[in-house]
TrEMBL record:
<dbReference type="Pfam" id="PF01053">
    <property type="entry name" value="Cys_Met_Meta_PP"/>
</dbReference>
<dbReference type="GO" id="GO:0071266">
    <property type="term" value="P:'de novo' L-methionine biosynthetic process"/>
</dbReference>
<feature type="compositionally biased region" description="Polar residues">
    <location>
        <begin position="1"/>
        <end position="16"/>
    </location>
</feature>
<dbReference type="GO" id="GO:0030170">
    <property type="term" value="F:pyridoxal phosphate binding"/>
</dbReference>
<dbReference type="GO" id="GO:0019346">
    <property type="term" value="P:transsulfuration"/>
</dbReference>
<feature type="region of interest" description="Disordered">
    <location>
        <begin position="1"/>
        <end position="47"/>
    </location>
</feature>
<comment type="pathway">
    <text>Amino-acid biosynthesis; L-methionine biosynthesis via de novo pathway; L-homocysteine from L-cystathionine: step 1/1.</text>
</comment>
<dbReference type="GO" id="GO:0005737">
    <property type="term" value="C:cytoplasm"/>
</dbReference>
<protein>
    <recommendedName>
        <fullName>Cystathionine beta-lyase</fullName>
        <ecNumber>4.4.1.13</ecNumber>
    </recommendedName>
</protein>
<dbReference type="InterPro" id="IPR054542">
    <property type="entry name" value="Cys_met_metab_PP"/>
</dbReference>
<dbReference type="InterPro" id="IPR000277">
    <property type="entry name" value="Cys/Met-Metab_PyrdxlP-dep_enz"/>
</dbReference>
<keyword id="KW-0028">Amino-acid biosynthesis</keyword>
<keyword id="KW-0663">Pyridoxal phosphate</keyword>
<dbReference type="InterPro" id="IPR015421">
    <property type="entry name" value="PyrdxlP-dep_Trfase_major"/>
</dbReference>
<dbReference type="InterPro" id="IPR015422">
    <property type="entry name" value="PyrdxlP-dep_Trfase_small"/>
</dbReference>
<dbReference type="GO" id="GO:0047804">
    <property type="term" value="F:cysteine-S-conjugate beta-lyase activity"/>
</dbReference>
<comment type="similarity">
    <text>Belongs to the trans-sulfuration enzymes family.</text>
</comment>
Length: 462
């Protein structure tokens, strides 16, 4: 995993569990020292016995033939021994053994007592927002995944829900709008695509004090349970798009919801059974198979992302990535997370230039989504966030030229070579004797961003 800022020798594993043997647990496969957990203690609540990488692959299947991989129970119905029923399963919409196996595994991985698997990340948010009633208020961020923004806009236009979009990187803007009508505070971090960091711990504390009935809901798609356990940091409900890191191969759509309150879990299960959005047996199997390699994929993806972020920054681009010390919320990120993840974005200052870079790339597929084993490149304002109208994007200061890189597990030299070639081919860099440097617009964007960061540092310290 990438290194957090402080490097003491407290002796816990990088996912917060206690090592049995310090000598081995603090050395990774390459013999480098592993950093200790920067996250606040991150207790396992008694559900996880081993380090997360071990728990991801360790499962107990209860199968009559001792199958070591959960079978796909591809059946809509289950026979009952009598008309009275009473068996665990009757109908796959209500429950299916393959899905149950995945849900129990995910609960363990997410430090939850209950996990629920549905057909997509948006399906997960739909289930969660059905806890709301007309007149309820939701507080959320001003840099949100486009689909989340679209669902919230629908709820406010059609379901009588009031939605406040505020800057959730700080507590004060949330505290300003919280009231006894607030039913939900919906957070996402790092935000997609501006890679802003949300202070979950401080916001959850403030929300629970100001309105104990309000639920703090956290979208952990960008980090995955490998890097962050929001339930340990104050969230009441956490959800993720299983389409991304959890499954890891962009071959399924899935969503996972987790919580520690049995009553909340029952309410959300009621919605899943009533609406029929539970994950199919086949996709439950694929998600179960994919999640076993999450630790090793994430380790490689974020090591590659770190190298690419440093490469771009060293050549004068304004890069947004929480693994870079230049990220304005670097310390805050590392206080909550065990790694920086595999998504970064950078600006060029020119939409056409960004288009040329994206289209010149060969190894990076032009595609939405992230978290899969192969690298992707996109222009969020045209693609993943196109459902946010241009005026709102401008109000929220989303640069139209922003390029998002979702880094995979390829050889990092190939990835950097392909990016360098694309930058040169697009005319984004000048080649000089001492290497190459961002040209005109890209360079002035980077310089302006340094000037802005220095100005905001001066204004906060004065
Ligand atoms: C941060 C985030 N949350 C939720 C979703 C929704 O997930 P899905 O596409 O699986 O519905 C996405 C992407 O789609 C996302 O980027
Ligand atoms: N056309 C889709 C776009 C999906 S974006 C997927 C992913 N979350 C990302 O950020 O790339 C839609 O309208 O939802």
């Amino acid at each position: 995993m990438a290194s957090p800022p402080n490097n003491d020798a407290s002796g816990s594993n990088n996912d917060g569990t206690k090592p049995l043997n310090k000598a081995f647990s603090k050395v990774d496969l390459d013999g480098h020292n592993l950093p200790p957990s920067p996250a606040p203690s991150s207790p396992s609540n008694g559900r996880r016995r081993y380090a997360l990488a071990t728990e991801l692959v360790y499962t107990e299947t209860k199968d009559q033939y001792g199958a070591s991989s959960i079978p796909i129970y591809q059946s809509a119905t289950f026979k009952q021994s009598s008309a009275g029923g009473g068996e665990e399963y009757d109908y796959t919409r209500s429950g299916n053994p393959t899905r149950t196996h995945l849900e129990r595994h995910m609960a363990k991985i997410m430090n939850a007592t209950r996990a629920l698997a549905v057909g997509s990340g948006m399906g997960a948010l739909d289930v969660i927002t059905r806890l709301l009633r007309p007149g309820d208020e939701v507080i959320t961020g001003d840099d949100l995944y486009g689909g989340t923004n679209r669902l919230l806009t629908y709820l406010s236009s059609n379901q009588g829900i009031v939605v406040h979009h505020v800057d959730t990187t700080q507590v004060a803007p949330v505290a300003k709008v919280i009231s006894d009508k607030t039913a939900m505070v919906l957070l996402e971090s790092p935000t997609n695509p501006l890679i802003k960091i949300v202070d979950l711990v401080a916001i959850a504390k403030m929300v629970h004090e100001a309105n104990p009935k309000a639920l703090v809901v956290f979208d952990n798609t960008m980090l995955s349970p490998m890097l962050c356990n929001p339930l340990d940091l104050g969230a009441d409900i956490v959800y993720e798009s299983g389409t991304k890191y959890l499954s890891g191969h962009h071959d399924i759509m899935a969503g996972i919801i987790a919580c520690n309150d049995p009553a909340l879990g029952d309410k959300m299960y009621f919605t899943i059974n009533s609406t029929g959005c539970g994950l199919s047996p086949n996709d439950s199997f694929l998600l179960m198979r994919g999640v076993k390699t999450l630790a090793i994929r994430m380790e490689k993806q974020q090591a590659n992302a770190q190298a690419i972020a440093e490469f771009l920054e060293s050549h004068g681009f304004k890069v947004r990535y929480p693994g870079l010390k230049s990220h304005p919320q670097y310390d805050l990120h590392w206080s909550m997370a065990r790694g920086a993840g595999g998504v970064l974005s950078f600006e060029t200052g020119d939409i056409k230039l960004s288009e040329r870079i994206v289209e010149a790339a060969k190894l990076y597929g032009i595609s939405v989504s992230f978290g899969c084993v192969n690298s992707l490149i996109s222009m969020p304002c045209r693609m993943s966030h196109a459902s946010i109208d241009a005026k709102t994007r401008a109000e929220r200061q989303m640069p139209e030229d922003i390029i998002r890189l979702c880094v995979g597990i390829e050889d990092v030299h190939d990835l950097i070579d392909d990016l360098s070639r694309s930058l040169v081919q697009a005319g984004a860099v000048n080649i000089t004797l001492d290497g190459f440097h961002a040209t005109g617009t890209a360079q002035s964007v980077a310089q302006a961003s340094v000037a802005n960061a220095e100005a905001s540092e001066t204004s906060t310290s004065s």
